What does this fold into?
Amino acid sequence: MPGESPLFSDKLHVGCPNLGDRAQLLARFEALLDRRWLTNDGPNVKAFERELAAVLGVKHCLAICNATIGLEIAIRALGLAGEVIVPSFTFAATAHALAWLGITPVFCDIDPSTHNIDPAAAEKLISPRTTGIVGVHVWGNPCDTDALADIARRHRLKLLFDAAHAFGCSRQGEMIGNFGDAEVFSFHATKFLNSGEGGAIATNDDELAAKIRRLRSFGVEGEQVSDLGTNGKMNEFSAAMGLTSLESMGDFLAQNRTNFAAYQEALSRVPGIKLFVPPSGERHNLQYIVAEIDESVAGNSRDALLALLHGENVLAKRYFFPGCHRMTPYRNTERGGSLSLPHTERLCERVLQFPTGTAVSTADVAKIGEFLRKSLARQRRAA
Ligand code: T4K
It folds into this structure.
């Protein structure tokens, strides 16, 4: 309420970093300083890659400086060109990675029940210039990998997954990291598992892995420069952070699970706010608490709710507003602004993410729920 102190004295963020054991991290920093080996395939990077591959059950997992560069490297390694089909409902980085390489992102609508690319809609967008599909496992919920793989096979397209949100998630019991030609994870500070900045490309294809390895290090092979590469290497500090985060992954997950249950309970009493529930029977990191706001029931638009929450220091987010096809770099292109993607556009107006992770307690969640319940009820009575 205006004039009153906010619900929380400190800001509650979506994406406040999960931190592993501080003493262990500092010990790793000391050791890498003592070794004077700071980057270029150092022992922390090698260990991080081994551990990641073991967790995912994948043959190759190559650490990268961030997922955006990871996507660019994977796109180049797969030889994508011309047009690539991608959902508009994703973080700008997915589309940018394509456009940055001179490829036209062809924006596709989503299945509103999963928030992921709609395979049938994707198939309709295939043209003679199409070379691939980039699916995004939005909020860590797996895409329909079978349908997309079938389309890719029939049309001889490459299939890449942006798995930035999906570390530790599974589809039909198989860990994300094993689908398509390759999958790209993000270990950015805001992610379930973080290395400060960082990412990884997972693949079961030996040849592709060898190419990715060259491309992330200037295209160098031995003393020769064999490919047009870039610098996508992860440094030893990030890998130390990643290794330390991996050791605490169980604690991160436990907190996310408890918070998710608390949100389920708290939001069930708030009409018009529907929590997005991930598929049951799968592994899921629950790093995003996602809700859809039905204005006609809640009595508030999503943006009005956002302002209300921000006033109380609950810094909810509205990923991925307004949808890539309506963002400045794309909206005036042939494939952008004139496009109608009804499910994407509707979701972009309704979706909201709430804070979770190890910096958020179940008591915080209960307070947020109670605040929403009371404020919206008061507003409904006044209307
Ligand atoms: N593909 C997808 C589908 C993605 O979602 C992303 C990134 C990528 C690809 C590319 O991955 P990377 O190249 O980043 O590895 C954030 C993240 O920066 C971005 O990594 C993430 N997705 C995206 C969904 O969220 P912003 O613009 O929301 O970041 P920012 O700085 O506003 O931070 C979010 C909240 O977290 C803030 O309220 C503050 C808090 N925060 C942030 C940082 C960095 C902290 O409390 N501590 C911190 O250290 O994009």
About this structure: Residues 13-17, 66-68, 90-91, 93-94, 136, 162, 164-165, 186, 188-190, 199, 315, 319 surround T4K (CB under 6 Å). The chain has two domains: 22-247, 250-316+355-382.
